[in-house]
Amino acid sequence: MQTASEREWQLERLHGMPSKKLDFKTGQYVVYPTQGVGRLQRIEEQVIAGQSVKLLVIDFESSHMTLRVPLERAEISGLRPLTSAKKMDEAITSAKGRAGSKRMIWSRRAAQYEENINSGDPMKLAEVVRDLQRRNPTDTMTFSARQLYLRALERMAQEFAVLHKMDVDAASEKIEDILGVPKEIDLNAVDVDDDDGDEDTSDTTE
Fold this sequence. Notes:
41% of the residues lie in helices and 17% in strands. It has 206 residues and is an alpha+beta fold.
């Protein structure tokens, strides 16, 4: 029995959908729209629907997932090489702008943000980061807004990290520093006087 991906691939072949063989190389970092940055491990061949197909085997370390994308479907799927450092800088600059209009109800805005995140486009990711970032230390976010913001920030940070040879957490902090996002206040923190922290360690005898 054919899998869904096999049927989809076969339909594209039958209907002659336009495709383009992009030049990918083993070891190259690439971006898959719904998964973010991965590394091309190898190119292998499999027989699907009676046809020999070249598959790009991509490893996504952050999600511990391996994805196989037919080479002929690479462009259709949205798979692309990393963006340039210049374009990443442009995206970060865009994220420093004023937040977009909030007239649309949250559910529709959230759906649009989700679509932007899954596009894998740095400029669309920047829109989410721009609209949902905290502008001052006392700003709060709903849980759903916070999750969308963190996902968009991480996707940007994944590419930034590879471009600047750092880990993703450091890249996230760097991007927020560039944007001027204030550090969160730990509402659970309790100030303790130095004297209160001292314990009497002398022995006592009852």
